[in-house]
Sequence to fold (200 residues):
Amino acid sequence: MRHELWLNCLGLALVLSSCAGSRVSSSSTASSSDYNSYNEDLTATRPVYAGTPATTAGSATTRPATVSAASGAATAPTRKNETRKPAGVPEALHVNRQLELALDTIADKNRSVRYAPGFRVQVYVGNQRKEVESIKLLIYQNFPELSPYLSYSQPTYKLKVGDFMRRMDAERYYSSIKQLVSSAQLQADKIDVRRSLLIK
Fold:
């Protein structure tokens, strides 16, 4: 078995070496053509526009092409009175007027929204006027950025603070307020959007 494998490998090596030796190397003696000397007059196929000189009796417009000595490429002559337009922003990159109008409408609508559902911390419920005022002062001294909302429905006073859009922000303040006022509760409420943006 090992002997047959060795013979197969030897035979494969002989075949490959014979193929490599039989390769004929041919040197290409094809003449290299000089592409820089190529010249063809294509003025007959160029389109004629209103600003170009008119064709004369069967001949196309004559715009003599000059060949530069360095590169050998034909270049069109420059006109003395030709003025170039300044490169500005393409018209396609400008925002569409209808899109601007729609965005302005949405922005105006958003500015007109004053109230939204959110959260407030209720810090007092009771019928003692002096107690509600002292708690209101305590909250103001520790959290001046929170707006107090005092409501009275005879004979009960309710004091709520804050305008929180997200529950996460309300819970952060709630834990701090709970250390000062043990009866504080977190409640869902309608909040003032502008004041909620002022809370950091």
